Task: structure prediction
Amino acid sequence: MSERLDTGSRHTDASAEAGEGTWPLGSFGAAQPDVTQADAAAVDLAVSTVIFALRTDDRFGAQGATPTLWLPLVRRIREPFEGLWALPGGPLRSSEGLADAARRSLGDTTGLAPRYLEQLYAFGDVDRSPSSRVVSVVYWALVGSSEAARATVGQNVRWFRSDELPPLAFDHNLIVEYALWRLRTKMEYSRIAHAVLGETFTLAQLREVHEAVLGRRLDPANFRRTIESSGALVDTGERLTGTRHRPPKLYRYDSSAQLVDNGPLPHT
Amino acid sequence: MSERLDTGSRHTDASAEAGEGTWPLGSFGAAQPDVTQADAAAVDLAVSTVIFALRTDDRFGAQGATPTLWLPLVRRIREPFEGLWALPGGPLRSSEGLADAARRSLGDTTGLAPRYLEQLYAFGDVDRSPSSRVVSVVYWALVGSSEAARATVGQNVRWFRSDELPPLAFDHNLIVEYALWRLRTKMEYSRIAHAVLGETFTLAQLREVHEAVLGRRLDPANFRRTIESSGALVDTGERLTGTRHRPPKLYRYDSSAQLVDNGPLPHT
DNA sequence: GCAAAAGTGTTGCTAATACACCCATGC
DNA sequence: GCATGGGTGTATTAGCAACACTTTTGC
Result:
C-alpha cells in the first residue's frame, strides 16, 4: 500500500482524459483519501490472449477420436511464478492498439494468425501479481484447426487440453475459465464456430466444432435446420467424396454475414 | 510513433506477468519489429464510468411525463478538449481495484453509490487522445432514481438525456453508445432493471423502467407473466394506495437471486 | 445386401405475443 | 356511475427438441 510514490513527471497526463480534477466542490463525505495523481504511476499495463484451437488428442490412436479444445501456453522463465505455465502476452507498445498487441503476442507464440479475435476482459485486482501492480487487458482468439496442427511447439511453448490445465501463473486459471464461458455462451447465438474450419466444410464438421465447444452432442437433423435457416452458409454445389457413406454437401461461409453482433463497436 | 523512449527502470516489471520475453526461438517470420520493453512505458491507464439513471424531464410540466435515461457528465477544465463534456473518471490508484476506482470516481462526481456496476470495455486506440497514449477501462453503472433526484449538480457537472448528448471529449460518444447497447441487450435477459428502483415497487413501475431503457412499450399482461415466472420478485403483501384506480401490489427484490450471469467472474 | 452417415418429415412442448375481458379503487 | 389502470384468461404463433424415416454412398 505504498502511496505517494515519486515517479517524476511521467504521468502528468494520466488524468488528461478523465474528469478527475475537474470536480468543482470539496471532498464528498469523508471518503476522499489523500492521494496524489502520482500514485497512479505504479500500475503497469499488459495484453494477454487466450488462444483456442480444435485438435484431436493424438495420445491415443487418432482414429475416430473426437476433437477437443486446446490452447497454447508459455512457460515463465523468470519470477514471479517461474516455471509455471502462463497465457502468452506482453506489455502494450505505445504505437499499437490493444487488439494489435493481442494479435502480435499470438503470432509470437504460435506463429499463426487468429481467425477471430475479441476483447475478453480487463483484469486488475490489486494482488493478482505478487511483484508489481499489473492490469491485463485480455483477448480471446480462435485459430483454424488445420493451421493449428502445424503450430509451433518448443521447450517453453506447449498446447494443453482446455479441460486438463495445470495450475497457471497469476490468475490465469480464472481467465481461461472465463474465456471458455464466453466462448460457449457466444457459440449459442453466433457463428464464430466457422472460424476454426477451412474454406469449405460439411455440416457434420461444423457440428463437430459446436459439440466440442459446448461439450455435448447435438441432433444432426435439428442442427442442420438451425444453421441453414440462419443464412450463414452457402452451398458450394460440391460434395465430399471418399467417405464410406453418402457424400455430404460442402458449404462455404457467407462472407457478407457478420460473425457476431458487437453493437456499435467496430469489428477487429 | 516515438519508440525507444528512455523511461528509466520504472517498467522493468511491465512484462513480469506475461509470456513476452520467454519466447525460446528467434523471431518468427519477418514480423518481429525491433522494439524494446521500455516502449510500453508511454501508455497511461485511466478508469471511467458511464452512469445511468432514470429521470423525468422536468423541463416540461412533470405531470405524466414518462421517465427517460440520463447520465451525468463533467466539463473538462484543461486541454485536450477543454470545455467539452466528458465521462467521469480518473487515473487508477495503485491501491485500488478497477471496480473500486470506478465506484470512487462515480462517488466523486455524483455523491452517490451505484446499485449496479459492471465492466464495459477497455478502450485503447492509439489516437484516441491527442496528447498522450491513454488506455481507459470503462465501467457502466446504474443508480436509483430516487437518489439520482438529489444528486449533485454544479458548474462543471450536469445531467444529460442519453439521446440528446452533445459532442463529447475523446471517443466518449462511442463509449456511451456502446454502454447503451449493452444496457439494452442485458436488460432483455437479466434483472438489472430492479437496480434503479426503491426497496419496494409496483409492476407498473418496473415495466416503466424496462420501457424507458428499451425505448418501446411493453404489454402489461405479458410483462407481468414474464417477470413473475422468472422468480425474481417477492410479493410483499402490501399495496400502494392513493392512486385513483385499483391499488397495485408492492413487490420486493428476491435478494437470493442473481442480477446477471457473469459466468465464473465474481460479482462486483 | 449391409453399414453408416446424409438428409427429410412430423410431432409435441414451451415461450412470446396479441388481445379480450373482468376487478377494484378514487372521484 | 365512470374513468383508470391492475390483473386474468386464452388463442395464435414461432422456435426448438425428439425421433422416425428415407436416401445414397463404400464395401
Notes: Helices of chain A lie at 98-110, 145-149, 172-189, 203-214, 220-230. Chain A touches chain B through 93 residues (CB under 8 Å). The beta strands of chain A are 43-55, 68-75, 85-86, 89-91, 116-123, 133-142, 157-161, 200-201, 233-239, 249-253. The CA atoms of residues 197 and 205 of chain A lie 8 Å apart.
